[in-house]
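Technical annex B. To support the medicinal chemistry partners, we prepared a structural model of the target in complex with iron/sulfur cluster, based solely on the information shown next.
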Amino acid sequence: MDFKKVVRTVFFIEILKGMALTLKTLFTRPVTLRYPEVPRQPKPGFRGLHALVREADGRERCIACGLCAAICPSQCISIHTGEAPDGRKVAERYEIEVLRCTFCAFCVEACPVGAVVLTEHFEYANYSRDDFWMTKEKLLQNWDTFMAGEKGREYLKRFWLPKATAFGGYEGQAVFRPKGKKEAAGA
Ligand code: SF4
Ligand code: SF4
């Protein structure tokens, strides 16, 4: 056995180093939170439960084009279209099976009018599968509860990609842009 190893073993150097580290961390601020007693505020753009945008006059913004359902890789959005009394095309039924969703946000990016969003709400664990079947009414209610007002406006400005071509997402994130448009400088 070499001399250095003998000294380290005899004087418990590694154990002393470990104890010093333990002692040091005793007096530093913890990086963990005592969730759920201490709630954690998600960062802007966090991909939580879906919502359908409701306009200030109470109408839903969705024009039932079906692009979100077409692009969804999990095929968890289903839309049944109909006609409003004024002749507009509307989604009679708009449903998302949240348990199959991968929270990729493609639906948000693909929507031509910014009618579907992902809220910051993530505490929706439950025992019943039915609670994860989001109907149009539930999705509109999610907008009222989590995104109404300035929060929703800010979200769409930053994270709805057909408009926000200067979106600064993480490296490698899929970004959809109108054909022929290059990424804005500094994005
Ligand atoms: S976030 Fe992705 S997987 Fe979930 S509904 Fe939207 S497109 Fe589908
Ligand atoms: S949410 Fe957007 S993409 Fe989906 S059907 Fe409505 S308007 Fe079209």
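Notes passed to the chemistry partners:
The longest helix spans residues 13-26.
The chain has a mean pLDDT of 86.
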